[in-house]
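@here heads up, posting the sequence + SMILES for the flavin-adenine dinucleotide run so it's all in one place. Ping me if the SMILES looks off, I pulled it from an old spreadsheet.
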Amino acid sequence: MPAANAQEIRQMAAHHRAGTEGLAIAAPLPDDVEVSFEFFPPASEGSEKSLWDSIQRLAPLGPKYVSVTYGAGGSTRQRTHATVERLLKETDLVPAAHLTCVDATVQEVDAVAQEYWDMGVRHIVALRGDPQAGAERYVPYPGGYAFASDLVAGLRQIGDFHISVGAYPEVHPEARGAKADMDNLKRKLDAGADQAITQFFFDTDVYLRFVDQARAAGIWAPIVPGIMPIHNFTKVASFCKRCGAGVPRWLADLFDGLEDDPATHRLVAASLVAEQCRALHGQGEKQFHFYTLNQADLTYAICHMLGVRPETDAASARA
Ligand SMILES: Cc1cc2nc3c(=O)[nH]c(=O)nc-3n(C[C@H](O)[C@H](O)[C@H](O)COP(=O)(O)OP(=O)(O)OC[C@H]3O[C@@H](n4cnc5c(N)ncnc54)[C@H](O)[C@@H]3O)c2cc1C
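bot reply: prediction finished. Complex structure tokens:
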């Protein structure tokens, strides 16, 4: 490359300054971020302990709500119910109960929703649900809600819930196409949902384009980015294949060789997701929904870097 003249150097420096200002990590500490945390119900005594340890660690960060996933099968569903009930009884956190259409009639799903309402649950994450393990594809249950939009309409008849629905920046894998999937998101919001939480993603531009497309399609409800702190890259990559989230080459390269080095893996994961969140914040995103996988460390660190701290710490950091 020929040597740059003085003007080119000035331009490059200006460009570099603009880029540095835009760089997530170099920006001032945000003070306007709201977070929510997703947990899954525990399947054993050991996992019960790690769930509640994680909840206790993250609770002081003052999440807007904490959501509890809902699985296929009676015992899993019972565990969701029990976790939501314990959150209500033993904490000041606002629970959001996930609910799906899978393997249940409309009456059965409505009964669960009514029970939640009677317990004091006011936020439902309404989903179609994934097919039970072993089933090749989703088939609506006879007499059940077929799709999430039907469930949202049903919930609206039961109580004045705050309703969240799923959204897919990289298109839901079973959708007929991006437009059909966007039409479906609109249908869910038109049926009465209040906001959308996205599937996790790693390419920030893909998410930002999706939000632009949603706005262009007349969707004005809040869209909250779903953030996946990567505790185990191999597992996350295999999950990506099933849910249609992309694994960019640069991401695989970052974790390459760290399979047996959990300490470095954790450091890389924390800096990666913090950078993603700070970049999104730089683009105007103020709410983040974390898929905690019942592990608090990474989520806590990322929240810290987003300025989300226990009340007293946050005040002193900004003072
Ligand atoms: C934030 C979040 C939380 C989640 N939590 C859980 C959970 O707790 N438990 C769980 O089992 N799963 C959960 N999932 C996974 C979710 O259940 C799956 O992604 C599921 O495959 C789709 O659910 P949905 O609510 O987005 O479905 P829908 O919005 O019903 O869409 C499903 C597919 O059907 C298509 N479609 C919708 N309506 C029609 C129609 N009328 N005709 C033809 N096609 C149609 C859509 O384009 C899409 O491809 C979650 C996902 C997200 C994003």
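MO: The first strand starts at residue 34 and ends at 39.
MO: One more: Confidence is low (pLDDT under 50) at residues 12-22.
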